[in-house]
Amino acid sequence: MARYTIALLPGDGIGKEVVEAALMVLEKTKLDVEYIEAQIGWEFWKTEGNPLPDRTIRILKNTACALFGAITSKPKEEAMNELAPKLREKGFVYYSPIVRLRQEFNLHTNMRPCKAYKGNPLNFRDDIDLVIFRENTEGLYCGVEYHPVPEDFRKVINKHRKMNKFKIVPNVEMAVSLRIFTRKGCQRILKSAFDFARKHKRKSVTLIEKPNVIRETSGMMVNEARKMRNQYPEIDFYETNVDAMAMWLVKNPQKYDILVASNMFGDIISDLAAQLIGGLGFAYSGNIGNDYALFEPTHGSAPKYVGMHKVNPIAMILAARLMLEWLGEEEKAAKIEKAVSEVIAEGKVRTYDFGGNNKTLDVAKAVADRIE
Ligand code: IPM
Ligand code: MG
Which residues approach ligand 1 with their CB closer than 6 A? Predict the structure, then answer.
């Protein structure tokens, strides 16, 4: 039996092309692994009314972790229009399978390294090396939403003095999405960030919130951070408001180190940070829980490029690297890291997005060839 069983979720569009590229690189590390492919994505929404079939969840439960390519997601009405006619009006509702996986497997920490590799012409600066820790299961993306607003819930919120101006608004004219934080959820993401900072001898942790306006939820996160920082005296701790952070990250990204944020702020700030180091071709994440993890490039399924084999596989390859690190295969992970940075620095093999005209698998091969 192989040492690891890993689920492959190539998903939609170019997801398949980048997963193939990552496998080419993993192969060269001689990881003792058995892969099990599982189904996810738009195709299964259209034909089964479920983009994340139960059989896929069952497969994942029997694996150590998962490598995820990309999926296509569309807003509510478009999703309904593409559902097989015989499944319509049967109560199927589209949901984001990646968000559901994060919830189902309690993958509470979304870790997003944003490092400028030397020689990447898309770098904003060459000295950026941030790691973002985004809370991944709660906050505004916890999925507790109402439209129309149910009467019993309305009764509760109508008691709030801020509701006076809304009192005449009918339930059907109002929509509510709840931003729910738990103390445990705050502590978990803060601990992930501080522990990583300690392990990797990083200088600072910066919390990104907005407690001056969102007093209760952001306030809870800030309070927990202030308590926790005392356990990490060697690490500097800063607090920022999310709006100001967007500005400072563009102004002085090299000054930041570890960033930590709740779900939506982390989502937004991580796209901003990704663009500073080359954009979607280089941005990847680990969705990490206590006993399961899923690794993915941040980009989507890029339908317009499907079959052209031209997208940049580096984000997917780096996601595989992060997976190796999580598995404890640090030597193999370091080999991939070194190979990727050499290929970028050398500049001979590049996909279109960073100034070349090579194909997806050319880049994967160049990386793989540097791993002995
Ligand atoms: C991300 C993506 C997802 C998110 C979408 C696809 C649901 O933007 O991983 O950052 O919002 O979390
Ligand atoms: Mg995002």
Answer: 73, 96, 98-99, 267, 298
The Å distance, Cα 25 to ligand 1 centre, comes to: 25
Phi, psi of 114 (to 5 degrees): -130, 95
Among protein residues, the one with the nearest Cα to ligand 1's atom 8 is 267
**Distance in angstroms (rounded) separating the CA atoms of residues 24 and 18:** 10
Would you say residue 10 has pLDDT above 90? Answer: yes
Amino acid code (one letter) for 2: A
Which residue CA neighbors atom 4 of ligand 1 most closely?
Answer: 267
Nearest residue (CA) to ligand 1, atom 9: 298
pTM strictly above 0.85: yes
Radius of gyration of the chain (CA): 22
Q: Where are the domains of the chain?
A: 1-108+283-372, 124-139+183-276, 144-177
CA of 68 to the centre of ligand 1 (A): 13
Q: Which atom of ligand 1 is closest in space to residue 263's alpha carbon? A: 12
Contact 264, 213 (CB under 8 A): no
Domain spanning 124-139+183-276, CATH class = alpha beta
- Ligand 2: centre distance to CA 154 (Å): 31
Phi, psi of 53 (to 5 degrees): -60, 150
pLDDT digit string (tens) for 30-64?
999 999 999 999 999 999 999 999 999 999 999 99
| Token pair for 110 | 């979304």
Q: State how far the Cα of 111 lies from the Cα of 201, in Å rounded to an integer.
A: 17
Q: At what angle do helices 360-369 and 330-346 cross, to 10 degrees?
A: 120
**pLDDT tens, residue by residue, 171-203:** 999 999 999 999 999 999 999 999 999 999 999
CATH homologous superfamily for the domain 1-108+283-372: Isopropylmalate Dehydrogenase (3.40.718.10)
372 has pLDDT over 90: no
d(CA 267, ligand 1 centre) in Å: 7
